[in-house]
Amino acid sequence: MVRNTASILLIEDDIRISELIKKALDAEGFIITQAFDGIVGEELALNKDYELVITDILLPIKNGLEICKTLKNIKPYLPIVMLTALGTTDDKVEGFDSGADDYLVKPFEIRELIVRIRALLKRHEKLGNNFLLKCEDLEMNLQTKIVKRGNIEIKLTPKEFKLLEFFLKNQGRVIPRLEIAEKVWGTYFDTGTNFIDVYINYLRKKIDKGYNKKLLHTQSGMGFILKA
User: Fold this and answer.
1) Is the pLDDT of residue 57 over 70?
2) pTM score > 0.70 for this model?
3) Is residue 41 within 8 Å of residue 12, measured between CB atoms?
């Protein structure tokens, strides 16, 4: 069942409409943050962990279509509902092409917006485990790009992130160096080089150092394995 306490960002420059929507969603138990122009809205959406975004298309400074494209490029799993007075088929196609998950034409019934919100949250709740990878207390969120062990956030380089993602998706299996090179680096390499071992050591220091339970292990002569 979808939680009505989901955090929602509302980007709407018409203060009257924004307050009406906020009041209705507050009454349903949702946690609403308001933004009144495109730049502030996009900045909030990129830097905070909202579970859904509602945005108008015609906004000051930066329009909703541009915001949607940016967000979907960085947070592809973030559901977005687009609100607009532009209701032609071409307008709707443009909205969906920008990445919007749903589209409501003004004026609309608040009850319909609430139904659409719940449906999107339910759908994305079911997808949740698809972007959350775990091994013991090590957790990677593919949506937010945050990696944690316990409550401690781990900072990884893009290549370290990709390497750990590969291990998490193949945990419990011994992976030879050649396969790591092919799948993570997209290349074949001279087995006399040790760049795989170098990156494994970088990663091991970040996810295992200081913890009693080690997760990333070397299988001599065979490769590496991530396991509980």
Assistant:
1) yes
2) no
3) no
